[in-house]
Design a protein that fits this description.
single chain; 248 residues; alpha+beta; 2 domains; ten-stranded mixed β-sheet; 5 helices; 10 strands; 30% strand
Length: 248
């Protein structure tokens, strides 16, 4: 049995999320079905993160185990051929030790959230960014974001359906910058609560629009109450960027 680490890129728009779902298509199901067609084996995919419906990935790490001998490049090419036309691509495939686990070996995760602040409808970026029709003050958003960096009780920014045992998380980095017509919110931590990034972005957007004072983000955090959340951003603009492992 050989364990292969996969790096996946996908458009989350057509899927109910990364994890296999009973009520619709998932990225996991698509990859596992392709792996079965290639190997004839029932393969289970484990991923570094769990993304919701509509959330995208630029570099999601995952792993599968295959009994038949395969060169990594050959397996990658075969999976990509069979994944078409689904918007999923295997960017890299490598043999890893049997004790390497895409989820449990991961020591860091990074996301980026893309906001297009313009009045004209999105065409090329439709479904790939959150459109906000008012101009955003990215500098104010960045200043407000710094109140969330560090170890905190993120109950306010946690989904009611979150399954994490504790609302305590350490946010290593939260930065906001403008890049052309996009405002980018970059978040890094060992792990995140369900909807944490989208909830933080929603409140920062309220600051950028001038509807919240910068200090209100810190006040919402201190409230430790989901009712204090100003806005939960939609999934369209969220991308899983990378997973970090000890060897990297």
């Amino acid at each position: 049995m050989t364990r292969f680490a996969l790096t996946l890129e996908f458009d989350g728009g057509p899927f109910m999320g990364l994890q296999r779902q009973s009520h619709g298509p998932s990225v996991q199901q698509a990859v596992e079905d392709a792996a079965f067609a290639v190997t004839g084996e029932k393969v289970v995919m484990h991923a570094a993160g769990r993304t919701d419906a509509g959330v995208h990935a630029l570099g999601m790490r995952a792993h599968v185990e295959v009994e038949k001998p395969f060169a990594p490049f050959r397996l990658m090419e075969a999976l990509n051929a069979l994944l078409r036309p689904a918007p999923i691509a295997v960017l890299d495939c490598a043999v890893v030790p049997d004790d390497w686990h895409a989820r449990f070996s991961c020591i860091g995760r990074a996301y980026v959230y893309r906001i297009a602040d313009r009045r004209a409808p999105l065409t090329l970026e439709r479904g790939k960014a959150w459109q906000v029709t008012k101009p955003l003050d990215a500098a104010a958003m960045h200043r407000a974001a710094q109140a969330l960096v560090g170890r905190h009780d993120f109950t306010t920014f946690r989904s009611a359906h979150c399954q994490s045992a504790s609302p305590l998380k350490t946010l290593d980095r939260l930065a906001v910058r403008r890049e052309g017509g996009m405002v980018l919110v970059e978040a890094e931590a060992r792990s995140f609560l369900h909807h944490q990034v989208r909830s933080m972005v929603g409140c920062l957007a309220l600051v950028g629009m001038g509807r919240w004072r910068e200090e209100q983000v810190a006040e919402a955090l201190a409230a430790r109450d989901r009712q204090a959340l100003g806005l939960n951003a939609p999934p369209d603009g969220l991308y899983f960027v990378r997973a970090v492992y000890p060897e990297s």
